[in-house]
Amino acid sequence: MHPKSTEDIMITLSDLAIQFGKRVLYKDVNMKFTNGNIYGVIGANGAGKSTLLKAISGELEPTKGTITLGPGERLSVLSQDHFKFDNCTVLNTVMMGHSVLWDIMKEKDALYAKPDFSDEDGIRAAELEEKFAELDGWNAESDAAQLLSGLGIKEHLHHKMMAELTGKEKVRVMLAQALYGNPDNLLLDEPTNDLDLDTVEWLEDFLANFEHTVLVVSHDRHFLDAVSTHTVDIDFNKVNLFAGNYSFWYQSSQLALKQAQNQKAKADEKRKELEEFIRRFSANAAKSKQTTSRKKMLEKLSVDEIQPSTRKYPGIIFTMDREAGNQILEVEGLTAIEDDGTVLFKDLTFTVEKGEKVVFLSHNPRAMTALFEIINGNREPQAGTYKWGVTITTAYLPVDNTAFFQSDKNLVEWLSQFGEGNDVFFKGYLGRMLFSGEEVLKKVNVLSGGEKMRCMIARMQLKNANCLILDTPTNHLDLESIQAFNNNLKLFKGNILFASHDHEFIQTIANRIIELGPKGHIDKLMEYDDYVHSDDIKELRGTIY
User: Fold this and answer.
1) Which of 50, 81, 164, 399 has the fewest CB atoms within 10 Å, counting from its CB?
2) Coil, strand, or helix at residue 210?
3) Nearest to 188 by CA among 178, 200, 180, 173
């Protein structure tokens, strides 16, 4: 078997167009995705990111044009159907990711199981054994087991049926299936959903050293930055390809927009400013631990590719009616236990100081939700007390907002329940959150998850609170909303208590970390990156779970 030339390994889109009815997602798409590069696919909700991956995988027929792979290339896709393999063992589910090898294994087993094994069967079996060896079949099980262990699926689960696993465990097995067997092309749609921060870091390391072609759709900016060499931007019915990761695309597009608005600056001054930006960005990016993908990315950054983005960002601006006094929140001996007896945390004691932005972490996300529900008066603790300072006003963003939207009210009527003002005032708030024209008259019970979150953020802004409580605030939000939210929280002068699985969100906002476990808690005044990589903290974490 001759190894393929790396130049041959690619995905080619030629004159691609996709439309549903009269709605054109994009047309005239011509681009190549080449070996050794990782392409982060970004775009507003509904722009067609997942649709592009489905077209490349063959799940969806394009309206026009062709999609081709190099000769003999294998394509692997992260499956979103978590019930499809319920009747298979975990280990077999992973090995099915390499369909050619799996089919050889099944045919081989069937031949050897025949009671009337013929000479013809013997010749076929010898052919299969040769192919099996070429595909490194003898290491198939150990390779699958290694992937599963890296993704946090313990060995005692490897021979269980998929139906016996929890939803979050299934997500990891499906990811192992996609990564299995070193595919030539890999398509990942939101691979970090339902992964804890440690597993996301493992995946970042894996992909940074993956030497084939990857297309990944994600709302996780830190993840995109850690792995991407290129950015595929789907915007206004066009698909554009840029060298560089998400941060490079975002910062450079903002700089280009500022330059476009500055009519007086001369062309050579603008070019010099862009070149200086690339130099600074490259110097910072080169320090990243993901050197493999970074190096490829930095070689290709070009001033000529920097363009203003047409993307719209919501206007998320939190203001305070009054400054907080010195007493913010005192928590003493709080304990939360679920109805099934699961201890979420116990004897939790801490005092929040003025200006602190505290992120709460746990292996069990229900622990943070329980804490936020308790301090908002929506849940009784099993033990302990909490006390807010007299000057503190709070605004709470719960993880589950279903109850808020069981209503026939339109957006203006709904928002007016939470503040004082006329229709023009509330329409202005909704306009800032990108609801324009007739959209403000939509009924709230038909909104998408992302639209509901933007409504909840508008509701919070009306409170002008000096302490924000945010339970996984980036859920359902697109990259533009996450970026705008993040930017404003960095500037917010009050207190923030929050939980998040967005690495960038935590790193840029939190100045204190409290991790909750059933056996105790950790409380540190430090940056998140330092916390994650500290050996001392890793030891401590072992004692609280």
Assistant:
1) 81
2) coil
3) 178
